[in-house]
Structure formats: structure tokens, C-alpha cells
Amino acid sequence: MAGLKLREKVTRFLKEHPEEKFTAREIATWLFETYPEACRAKKERSDSLDSDDQLLNQIVAEIGTNRPAIQKKVPQIKTTEERPRKYYFTSKTDAQEVEDVEQQGVSGAVAQDGDEMPTSETSPGRQGSKKNLAEHDLYPMLSQYLWVEFGIYSRRIDEKRAANRRGPNGNKWLYPDVVGMEDLSAEWHREVKSCVNQYSDKQTKLWSFEVKLLLNRSNVRECFFQAVSNSSWGNYGYLVAAEVEGAETLKELRMLSAAHGIGLIRLDAENPAESQVLVPARERIEIDWDTANRLATENKDFLEYVKLVRQFYQTGDSRPSDWDLPQTELD
């Protein structure tokens, strides 16, 4: 990008805003506003750029094209794997990033009254303040996404409510964070549902979710196999993360998923409805009832979940108030 020196200026901008995350469009907007003459000259040299919007889109595309070269020269510049991808500069190791986000949380929804987390006035695209979210804040967001996107009834499983009859680490990686039930008969005629209740057990799919704040190269395998371990009983198992950092992390997850069938959901903490299934889970045809029995025996939350599934099979209906559904669905 002659004249604008894209790689140099993107690198400098990110270094001047360490730990802050920006989309390519936010960076391009900053370039457009900070270097108007160079941008105007670029547009004039091109036969295909007829407007400022087209120029801005071109800069966005060129930032993405130059990303590998920028990261090769400055490894401290990292990207998330959400869409749109976000760029940031950090001097922390991958392990330090995970430790920090577990202690401090991730930036999420707009802060409520009393939450004071001002952002830099020089940061493009930053309006208002953000509230740092802990892992437990992600559970209701996940429930909202699952209900809106898939019609899944979900419930939180609190491992602290589990008995520990097997000694230290006896229940390690046993319980998922969230479980779900998909009603396959939601659109069926009442008579068909009644018939299925009598003659079939294929009226639901049971889901399991392990939730994390951040996945990167330092914790990706451990978190993935935690999800493998505590999702082995259900039809679908998913690892859920508010942030997925680095293309190599996503590549590793895709490889592991191909071998073990666990899927990946990138949970958008600012707008749960915009969350994405990055890697679909592979369905297990049968429920592992032996494992489900152990979970129900050891944990009251999981036992309540099994009771709700049983009640659904008995009645053909599921009461929204029994599940962790968005409040608007209950009003």
C-alpha cells in the first residue's frame, strides 16, 4: 500500500494501544481519519475506488491480507478467531493471558450504573464503558443463545453441589457447566407427540457444554479434553469460549474435533445472539445412561435435569420456568 505504509502504521497503532482489541474496520477508520491525504492519494491512483466507502473496504481487506506478515515480524500482535477478527498487541505469554482473563474476566456487555471502566478516547469505535465478565456471567448468555438459535432448554450444573465420595479428584472433569434438552417434537401435532410418547424415545437430543473465558495455545488441549470427559454421556458435546485467540488454536480445535466429535461455540459476550458455532459437534446416537446415572447420583443439579427430561417424556410439554431461559421468554 504505497504511501500509507500499512504494515508500519497498523503495528504502531496496536503498540500504542496495548491489550485493546480492534477490528480491521476500526483500524481502517483510524487510518482514514488520521492520514486523509495518503488515503485520498490512494483513491486517486485507483481506477476501481470511486467512493470513500469503497476505499475504506479496500483498506480493511488489505489489513487482513497483510496480517500474516505483520504477525511474523511482530509476534506480540495477535488476533482472535471470532468474526470479525480482532487485532491486539500484548507482551504476555499465552499462559499469562489465560491466567489474567480468569482473574479479571473478559470485556462484555455495556456497564450498568455504578460500573466505571472508562475507555481511551483515542480508541476508534469505542463508545461507552464495558463491564468485565467472569465465567459465571457467561452461563445466562449461553442459555439465551441456545434458546434463540436452537430452541434448546438449558440448565446450569454447579459442581459445588456434587457429593465427593471418591476422594480427591474423584469428580474431576465429570460435570459440564451447562446442559440442554432439544425438543425435536416442538412443531409436531399433538396426536403425533402422544403416539411418540408411547412408542419411541427419539423425541429429544441431550446437550452438554463446557464454558471458558479464553482459549489459546496454552490451554486449548486441556480445555478440549475436559469437554470430552464431561460430555461423554450426551448426544452433543460443546466447548464454549468468549474468546478464541489465534489461527493455530482454531486449527488445533478442528483437528481434535475431527477425532473426538466435540464442537466449538464462540460466545459473543456483548451480543449473545451473534454467537457462532465455529466447529459443529458430531452426534452420538445413544445416551450413555451409566455415566448419566453417576452424574445424577453425585450432583443434585444434574438429577433435577434428568427429572425434567423424564417429565417431558411423560407429558410432552416442558415448562419454560423450569429452565434457564431468557427472562423475556417467561414474561
Count every helix, treating DSSP H or I runs of 4 or more residues as helices: 11
* Main β-sheet, spatial strand arrangement: 6-7-8-9-10-11
Oligomer: single chain
Average pLDDT over all residues: 85
- Contiguous uncertain segments of 5+ residues: 110-123, 125-129
The biggest sheet, with number of strands, parallel, antiparallel or mixed sense and barrel status, is: 6 strands, mixed
**Fraction of residues in helices?**
40-55%
Rg value:
23 Å
Series of H and E elements: HEHHHEEHEEHEEHEHEHEEHH
Helix/strand/pairing class, anyone?
A: alpha+beta
Distance between the termini: 54 Å
Shape: elongated
Per DSSP E runs of 2 or more residues, the count of β-strands stands at 11
**Strand residues, percent:** 15-25%
Summarize the topology:
Layout: H1 6-16, E1 22-23, H2 24-34, H3 36-45, H4 52-73, E2 77-79, E3 86-89, H5 94-104, E4 106-110, E5 130-133, H6 135-150, E6 152-156, E7 178-183, H7 190-199, E8 204-215, H8 220-230, E9 236-244, H9 247-260, E10 263-266, E11 276-279, H10 289-298, H11 300-315
Helix pairs in contact: 1-4, 2-4, 8-9, 10-11
Describe the structure.
By secondary structure, the protein is of the alpha+beta class. The chain is built from eleven helices and eleven strands. It is 43% helix and 18% strand. The strands form three sheets. It has a six-stranded mixed β-sheet, sandwiched between helices. The protein has a three-stranded antiparallel β-sheet with strand order 1-3-2. Strands 4-5 form a two-stranded antiparallel sheet. The protein is elongated. Mean pLDDT is 85; it is low at 110-123 and 125-129.
